[in-house]
Amino acid sequence: MALLHHSMRDKNGAVVTTAVTNLDIHDIARSSRTYGVKSYFLVNPLAEQQDVVKRIMGHWQVGGGRDYNPDRADAFERVKIVSWFQDTINEIERVEGQRPEVLMTSAQRAFTGLKWKSWQDARREISLNPGKPRLLGFGTGWGMTEELLREADFVLDPILPATPSGYNHLSVRSAVAIALDRLLGEQ
Amino acid sequence: MALLHHSMRDKNGAVVTTAVTNLDIHDIARSSRTYGVKSYFLVNPLAEQQDVVKRIMGHWQVGGGRDYNPDRADAFERVKIVSWFQDTINEIERVEGQRPEVLMTSAQRAFTGLKWKSWQDARREISLNPGKPRLLGFGTGWGMTEELLREADFVLDPILPATPSGYNHLSVRSAVAIALDRLLGEQ
């Protein structure tokens, strides 16, 4: 899994690098670990942002933090910090011996020409071929740029309730949890 | 929905009132609004904790906060602050004209004699009788006391992945998102 901070849109549509949020590290590491995700990549090219992540994780991985909550250190063992989306592809290819299939997520059906995939189809494919390397990508801020979405082999359908509510603003932490449960949860 | 802060266990098993977390307000309000939950009750008997919640929500509900992110104010309109679990029952009964069915959640199959219910059964019952008032309760800290769990008509199965991972420590924000999607998500 990858949480991407670049290239994102801000609320005005400008292309930005978003800041890492403390609970994006914690909650998504815990969800990833719960659902058996091999690696959780925090992708941010800014050195000072990478330092923030290392400092937060370090607090929980050694000494008093680790003693207080060893489960958190366990979850953080699968977190990797990289600068660019391409780094996640390269790292997975290095470990798995083949390029991963890239599944991006989007809260909206934006842009034409993207290859959409339903959650049920993705779930079925994973269960039929669980050993195939896959990368599940999530954006931050006001969402990925078109260029980044086009890096995907498939884009998963927006997460929606069965009955429309007129509100489509889940936190990325919630979206990740729902996505992992839809793909890998007990049914 | 209700997020309960009393009576919880801490990591040593002592009965405590837990503190409200900033993102428990934000993330769960957004998830609740997304899935059409009528009211999100923050349940905490401590006046200073209630003041924290009011201050955080006030920031987003008026002036600059509201202008910056009107969607957040929208989500917060359904948040209610009460002191005790019984207050949520009374409020729902006042609005709906009947006592709600109480569905509690638990990360573990603790305690004997609880009436467990599967997510599929709960989802089916909701879809067959969507007008029936229901209260979905979540604990914080290291989980609800036995006394509180016994207030439930049913306790929903622990949220688990299809393939056991040996890790069972979702954040409550993630658990709420998954629960709402299991009960009310598009399939």
Please describe what this structure looks like.
2 copies of one chain form a homodimer. Chain A is built from 8 helices and 9 strands. Chain A has helices at 22-34, 47-61, 63-68, 70-76, 85-96, 119-128, 146-149, 172-184; strands at 2-4, 8-9, 15-16, 40-43, 79-82, 101-105, 116-117, 134-138, 154-156. In chain A, a hairpin with a 5-residue loop joins β2 and β3. The first copy, chain A, is globular. The model of chain A has no long low-confidence stretch (mean pLDDT 95). At the A-B interface, α1, α4 and α8 of A face α1, α4 and α8 of B.
Short description:
The structure is a homodimer of 187-residue chains. The first copy, chain A, is of the alpha/beta class and 187 residues long. Helix content of chain A is 43%, strand content 16%.
Radius of gyration of chain A: 16 Å
- Tell me, rounded to a whole number, the average pLDDT of chain A: 95
- Strand percent estimate of chain A: 15-25%
Number of strands of chain A: 9
State the low-pLDDT regions of chain A, or none: none
Q: What kind of oligomer do you see?
A: homodimer
Physical arrangement of strands within the biggest beta sheet of chain A: 5-4-1-8-6-9-7
> How does the major sheet of chain A shape up?
7 strands, parallel
Element order, helices and strands of chain A? EEEHEHHHEHEEHEHEH
Distance between the termini of chain A: 22 Å
**Which pair of chains forms the biggest interface, and how many residues does each contribute?**
A-B, 41 and 41 residues
**Considering DSSP H and I runs of 4 or more, what fraction of the residues of chain A is helical?**
40-55%
Structure class of chain A: alpha/beta
